[in-house]
Amino acid sequence: MINKTERFQSGKKYKPYYLTKAQKIDDTTNKAHEGAIRQAIEWLMSRHKQAVTQTISEMIFSDFSDDARDALNSLDDRIWQSIQLNATECLIAEGEILVKDEYRRVTDLLLDFGGPLFTAGQRQWIEQLSDRPLRMYAITDVTVGQQITLSDALDTSSSPIIVHERSGSQLSLLGTQIGVRIMSVNDHYELSGSAYPYSRLASTEVMSALKEVARDFLDEPEELPRFISFIIRRKWIEQYIRPIVSLSGVKKCSGPGCQDRNTTSLRIYD
Fold first, then answer.
1. Is the pLDDT of residue 84 over 60?
2. Is 113 helix (H, G, I), strand (E, B) or coil?
């Protein structure tokens, strides 16, 4: 069990973020894969906490300037919760951590002998998560409270995919773009859990970057999914912090609660 005082340790000044029961890190609708992500993270934190926390910190903060990091620290908790949820899933789906001086893929650690005691459904979910790439999609149709239709934004020749989605099926999303993993569940498709929604303005920039990297890796298609994932994840964070840095400057934290926002650790709340 991840204790409420467990922390993501880091040597830099990073804002803490919290995971409460209201921001679940997995599906809790009594499906075969229910609890897979939570069990995976609990196992990883009990055995490889330092490597896990360092890797997640690097996923979020690496290569950002000091001003950008301060802007990240100024984001509200709602956005921080989304950042943590997305980073957690990314770690499991495609991350690597340092174990005994060797980088190991997290999925391999989880599924190898000695890993968590997953149920068959949970194990299949982790396996599928590692196989499903993070892709950019256009939301082309919405049935409120039921489903959304997604079209691959890079592969425009592919057929649209109808995804069962209750909370995220809102008319306001129609015509926008989103980075997601699409999972097969029984006889239909669902989202994996993490999501990288883009504003209409930010969509133009991320699509330009994705098309450029797709051209660059025509001869190395096996490497392309990793770079697509990085661009989707990085540009998604940038759309939140850029206005803070470029328009009004970064506001330094002051007043009550400042110590928490500038602590040198990142905490997970269960």
1. yes
2. coil
Full domain range(s) for residue 199 = 7-249
Q: How far apart are CA 14 and CA 227, in angstroms?
A: 25
Residue 267 lies inside a defined structural domain of this protein: no
Q: How many angstroms separate the most distant Cα atoms in the chain?
A: 54
Q: How far, in Å, CA of 57 to CA of 229, rounded?
A: 17
Give which of 110, 139, 135 is closest to 43, Cα–Cα: 110
Does residue 62 form part of some domain? yes
Number of domains comprising the chain: 1
pTM: 0.80
Distance between CA atoms of 258 and 198, rounded to whole angstroms? Answer: 29
| Alpha carbon distance 169, 177 (integer Å) | 13
Contact 57, 8 (CB under 8 A): yes
Taking 70 as the threshold, does the pLDDT of residue 30 lie above it?
A: no
Cα gap 110→227, rounded to integer Å: 24
CB atoms within 10 A of CB 126: 23
Mean of per-residue pLDDT scores for the chain: 81
pLDDT tens-digit map of 167-185: 877 888 899 999 999 999 9
For the chain, give the percent of residues with pLDDT over 70: 79
